[in-house]
Design goal:
- The complex is a heterodimer.
- Chain A is an alpha/beta fold.
- Helices cover about 30% and strands about 30% of the residues of chain A.
- Chain A is built from 4 helices and 7 strands; from the N terminus they run E-H-E-H-E-H-E-E-E-E-H.
- A 7-stranded mixed beta sheet of chain A has the order 2-3-1-5-4-6-7.
- Chain A is globular and about 35 Å long.
- Chain B starts with 5 loop residues before the first strand and ends with a helix.
- Classes of the chains: A alpha/beta, B mainly alpha.
- At the A-B interface, helix 1, helix 2 and strand 6 of A face helix 2, helix 4, helix 5 and helix 20 of B.
Chain lengths: ~140, ~400
């Protein structure tokens, strides 16, 4: 059954793969609203890798909610050893970003009120349930 | 374990996003001649190490990070970032760029110098990290190539010798993103030759100041009308000959702005708790002092910057400041910076490191530092201590994220 509900999302990724990501969104029936340089909050700024080699951008998209969940599932299951996926619902639009820190991969869901829930990537079903509630699906 | 390239200033760990490989000194002595994509990452992050050891503003920033790490290590208490750290990545409106942008532009300048513009441009066209409009870049690059303008000049056998200021300019402007901004600011006001001569020195002195972006802009505006360089001289001669002129103007500007002269990194560290409390800084700055002694005792007087009337010890101190500001220059790296100040830890994506001991002992010119060879610092222990600090810093960052 086709999912007609659409979500606005900010997807943070490397500049070098942003065009391919935007093309995928387009082919999946979504809309890319713009691409801008990612400027982290000062508190988080020193968490990101050397941007000289891999500058980060924010790709704004509007995408069917079901596809957002599929993208998130793929991202989470593809996390490497020292990567944390942050799904941040504190801003105007939900933002997804990867932070290279820590010793094991992890998923952090930041709710609109600032509270943080931690998940292991293997808890993908729980993560999806939590997000479905938070995203109002 | 790192997945990307980065330098962690408060722990002095260089992280490289590739799997471990046996140590090879060419990564630092001749990065264009050994596995260039890997060497480039190691070299670039090592330049950051030298920047953070050698520049007053960056030493004070690390001291702020250290003031957070210490209580966290002792009690788990998470303190807020210091003011320099908070401002580091934020563009200053009047300049249009941040301190981080200026630092990255300075490091990129030495990437271009150490790898050479053709190789750097080729690497960036092949690398998937940037959206660099490869068609346009290649057209410009190939036009310079076909016009014979990549090289400074050709020898009797027709081989290209040295890189032209035009090819340097292309590599600085292309694919540098917002890190090109400080260099472009200079290029708006002068030609590529003077820009290549002034850029690293202006960035260097700005990184000693309280507000590097605005200091850089003001220093450039003061210097550009004063500088006239004859074409055809090696660029290294220009940096050396201009150093004292740029220092004088930077001193005047610093006094106008802050009421006192510039403090170099070496002067700043001795009033910082880092010197006594931080094992990596204690070692690095002890080694820098030894390096100054070595410069004064063993280097020919013409190698030293400053007027001949200046005492040799003072000239050696300013020469060390010059070498740190021009840290990517071949004459800075070999032997002085690498013999005395090789990075303490280079960690690869699988967690395996090169430590300073392994690196230092592999340098064929280790004998250039006789006092060090006789009384070597506990290099392996320093590396292990810094790796342990890095784990704690990681825990602090996780707490910042709320994990």
């Amino acid at each position: 059954m086709k999912d007609h509900s659409a979500l606005t999302l900010e997807w943070v990724c490397g500049e070098g793969i942003a065009a391919a990501f935007a093309a995928r969104v387009g082919s999946d029936g979504g809309t890319v609203t713009g691409t801008t340089a990612f400027v982290p909050e000062p508190e988080e700024a020193d968490l990101y890798s050397d941007a000289q080699f891999d500058p980060l951008v924010v790709v704004g998209v509007v995408l069917a909610a079901g596809l957002v969940m599929r993208y998130l599932r793929e991202l989470i299951l593809d996390l490497k050893g020292r990567e944390i996926a942050v799904i941040d619902l504190t801003g105007e639009a939900p933002q997804v970003r990867i932070v290279p820190v820590g010793k094991a991969s992890l998923v952090l869901v930041k709710a609109a009120d600032g509270s943080v829930t931690k998940f292991a990537p293997s808890e993908i079903d729980k993560i999806e349930q939590s997000l479905a509630g938070l995203l109002g699906r | 374990m790192a997945t990307r390239n980065r330098y962690v200033p408060v722990t002095m760990v260089v992280d490289v996003g590739e799997a471990w490989t046996p140590p090879h000194t060419y990564a630092l002595t001749g990065p264009k001649d050994w596995r260039p994509p890997l060497s480039r990452a190691i070299f670039h992050e090592t330049v950051h190490y030298w920047q953070f050891v050698g520049h007053a503003h960056l030493i004070q920033l690390v001291a702020e990070d250290w003031a957070r790490l210490k209580p966290f290590q002792a009690t788990g208490q998470l303190l807020p970032q210091g003011p320099l750290r908070r401002a580091f990545t934020q563009p200053v409106e009047s300049a249009g760029f941040s301190t981080q942008d200026l630092m990255e532009a300075h490091a990129r300048f030495w990437d271009v110098q150490a790898l050479g513009p053709p190789l750097l441009i080729e690497l960036e066209l092949e690398a998937p990290h940037r959206d660099v409009s490869p068609t346009l870049t290649r057209v410009q690059y190939e036009r310079l190539m076909s016009d014979g303008k990549i090289w400074h000049h050709r020898d009797a056998q027709g081989q290209g010798v040295g890189y032209s200021s035009l090819s340097f300019d292309l590599a600085m402007r292309l694919a540098a993103g917002r890190y090109a901004l400080p260099y472009l600011r200079l290029r708006e006001q002068t030609n590529d030759l003077i820009a290549a001569a002034l850029f690293p020195l202006c960035a260097h002195f700005a990184l000693h100041s309280a507000s590097p972006p605005t200091f850089y802009v003001a220093l450039v505006e003061r210097l550009v009308p004063q500088i006239d360089l004859p074409a055809g001289r090696p660029i290294e001669h220009a940096w050396r000959s201009l150093y004292m002129d740029v220092l004088r103007e930077a001193q005047r500007l610093h006094i106008d702005r802050y009421g006192h002269e510039i403090q170099t990194g070496q002067a700043t560290i001795h009033t910082s708790p880092l010197f006594h409390e931080h094992v990596g800084n204690t070692m690095a700055h002890t080694m820098l002092s030894l390096a100054c002694d070595h410069l004064a005792a063993h280097r020919p007087l013409e190698f030293l910057v400053g007027p001949q009337a200046m005492p040799t010890g003072m000239r050696a101190l300013w020469t060390m400041d010059f070498l740190l500001g021009c840290c990517g220059m071949a004459a800075s790296r070999m032997p002085d910076l690498l013999a005395f100040l090789a990075p303490p830890v280079i960690r690869f994506s699988d967690g395996e490191p090169w430590t300073l001991g392994a690196l230092f002992d592999a340098f064929p010119f280790a004998s250039a530092a006789p006092s060090t060879a006789e009384n070597p610092p506990p290099r392996a222990q320093v590396a292990q201590a810094l790796l342990a600090l890095d784990e704690t810093w990681d825990d602090l960052q996780l707490k910042v994220l709320g994990a």
